[in-house]
Amino acid sequence: MYKAAAIGSRESVSGFASLGISVFFKTQPDEVSRLINRLAQNGFAVIFITEAAAAGVSEAIEKFRSRRIPAIILIPGVSGNTGEGMRDLHRSVEKAVGSDILK
Hints:
CATH superfamily: ATPase, V1 complex, subunit F
Radius of gyration: 13 Å
Distance between the termini: 35 Å
Number of strands: 4
Strand order of the largest sheet: 2-1-3-4
Mean pLDDT: 87
Shape: globular
CATH class: Alpha Beta
Helix content: 25-40%
Strand content: 15-25%
Oligomer: single chain
């Protein structure tokens, strides 16, 4: 069975635990990068990561973009939305459909 995880600050991802999602309170780029790789190797199909935590680990995230699993989903944190999550969603839709139908 596949698992799901959420990575970010305590304030941003604690609520995911009530949904049965594993939460990891990591925000330092080196820790987040290692964690993403470890989760991918251990059967996590979906990884939610706050935009702030994802900011310094674009290489680690990009490594999994062409793979089916894990799906890495950028989400806003409690400090606000940088817009990177929406830009990422638009890129994914455009890649899948051939044009950005979300505009």
